[in-house]
Design a protein that fits this description.
By secondary structure, the chain is of the alpha+beta class. 65% of the residues lie in helices and 11% in strands. It has helices at 2-20, 26-35, 38-59, 103-169, 175-210, 243-264, 315-381, 387-422, 425-431; strands at residues 64-73, 86-100, 269-281, 297-307.
């Protein structure tokens, strides 16, 4: 019985340990990055604030009902009368602000625009987090793929070294042949250790970007790097479609509204208000006169107020000029951003074309070196070529294969940049259910 309990506890502990050691794939890592991003949480809070402000500004157009009551007792210090001076007042007021020189309407429009800006900021931050994490994941995936290539090369070298060592002991190979192959094997093992160190650092960088306290020893599942890539049709994308430009364009509308508001203060201002008030008093103490409604009254008013500032030492004029200059600054910044985005998009298009041509050349060269090494290795086993030719061919094949996967990784990074500038990278990743076909 005790043995069964101990075995069950051990199994439970092992299962818990195994579950914590499971490797995270890219989408799980992205989910954690979004959950732990303080910048994203701050932007979501900002969006919530803008939503409340928009509702408040709209609610200010609706009628308001206010209740006010006062109850107490007042007297003089040397008052000799036995009359109790009870104080009691009750009022209920319904008010409506029909027009306030357009200030509320402009505030509603600005609040709505601010909400849209906050929404764009959240989308931009999600795309930024996704883009940065994806860059790290692509680097890590390339290193993991390179490790597989080097391990494959090492396994082949170990096999040949074992065969050469046997022949050397039998006197069929010279000591120079044995030492050369042993040196090549040790070089590959040293390179493999350096590569594993780079992978460990890459995993640590990934863990730190997610949550440095809990995931320092977390394993990650690398993205599958495709070996065949179709050429991407470069999207017909205008800079005005970018999220950065859209955010700036909305901010430009806010500045235009501020100019209108400042201009209104230079002219006569009109206000139209209506109120209706029910009130009663002196319904407590000896002066209550019978009932609560004895001194009641009901009145209403509709007031049109015209306000015109005759002299304020130029404050209103300067506020208008400030609003105009801020609008101009935003317009200039928007034009510059549009120009920068157009330049960056053209650079990415040219970069993509160059990398894709490089990929095609590396693909042809990779296939050629694979065939060359396969034929040469058969000749080596049959004794028609020397081991030096075999090692040279193996080095060339390994280097070509790594260069081939490097070009694919750079191609993926460029495509990720294109999607990032379009503002659709996050949606592209979330909707794509296969990390193996993340871009294709």
């Amino acid at each position: 019985m005790i043995y069964s309990v101990v075995l069950s506890l051990f199994s439970l502990f092992f299962c818990c340990f195994e579950s914590t050691a499971l490797a995270l794939d890219f989408k799980q890592s992205l989910h954690l990055a979004l959950e732990n991003s303080q910048a994203l949480h701050a932007l979501e809070s900002e969006y919530l604030v803008t939503t409340y402000k928009e509702k408040n500004n709209f609610s200010s157009l609706l009628p308001k009902l206010a209740l006010q009551t006062t109850h107490g007792y007042q007297d003089e210090f040397h008052h000799k009368s036995n009359v109790h001076n009870w104080v009691s007042n009750f009022s209920l007021q319904l008010s409506e602000k029909f027009y306030d020189n357009g200030v509320t309407f402009i505030a509603i429009r600005n609040a709505s625009l601010s909400q849209k800006i906050s929404e764009k900021k959240i989308i931009l931050e999600k795309n930024k987090l996704c883009y940065n994490l994806l860059q790290q994941y692509l680097d890590y995936s390339y290193l993991a793929q390179t490790l597989l290539i080097e391990e494959e090369s090492l396994a082949l070298l170990k096999k040949q070294f074992s065969h050469t060592s046997t022949l050397y002991q039998q006197g069929l190979k010279t000591k120079l042949d044995y030492l050369r192959l042993k040196g090549e094997l040790q070089k590959t093992e040293i390179g493999l250790l350096s590569l594993k160190s780079a992978i460990a650092k890459s995993k640590l960088d990934l863990a730190t970007s997610l949550n440095p306290q809990e995931l320092l020893h977390q394993e990650f599942t690398p993205l599958t790097i495709p070996t065949s890539v179709k050429k991407m049709i470069f999207p017909t994308f205008s800079s005005k479609q970018s999220l950065q430009y859209q955010q700036g364009a909305i901010a430009q509308e806010v500045h235009e509204n501020n100019v209108i508001l400042a201009r209104k203060k230079l002219r006569p201002e009109f206000y139209l208000d209506a109120t209706s008030t029910y009130s009663t008093k002196d319904y407590l103490g000896e002066h209550r006169n019978g009932s609560f409604r004895h001194n009641e009254s009901l009145d209403w008013s509709i007031l049109l107020t015209v306000k015109f500032t005759l002299w304020d030492w130029g404050i209103s004029q300067r506020e208008h000029k400030i609003a105009v200059e801020e609008k101009y600054q935003q317009s200039t910044q928007l034009t510059q951003e549009l120009s920068d985005l157009a330049r960056d998009l053209e650079k990415m298009r040219v970069q993509y074309e160059q990398i894709f041509q490089q990929y095609k050349l590396n693909y042809d060269l990779y296939k050629l070196e694979e065939d060359n090494f396969s034929n040469l290795y058969d000749d080596y086993r049959n004794g028609r070529v020397s081991y030096l030719d075999m090692i040279t061919a193996l080095r060339t094949k390994t280097a070509t294969k790594k260069e081939f996967y490097s070009s694919i990784t750079e191609l993926q990074k460029t495509i990720a940049s294109i999607y990032y500038y379009q503002g659709i990278l996050y949606d592209k990743v979330v909707k794509d259910n296969s990390t193996a076909t993340l871009f294709y």
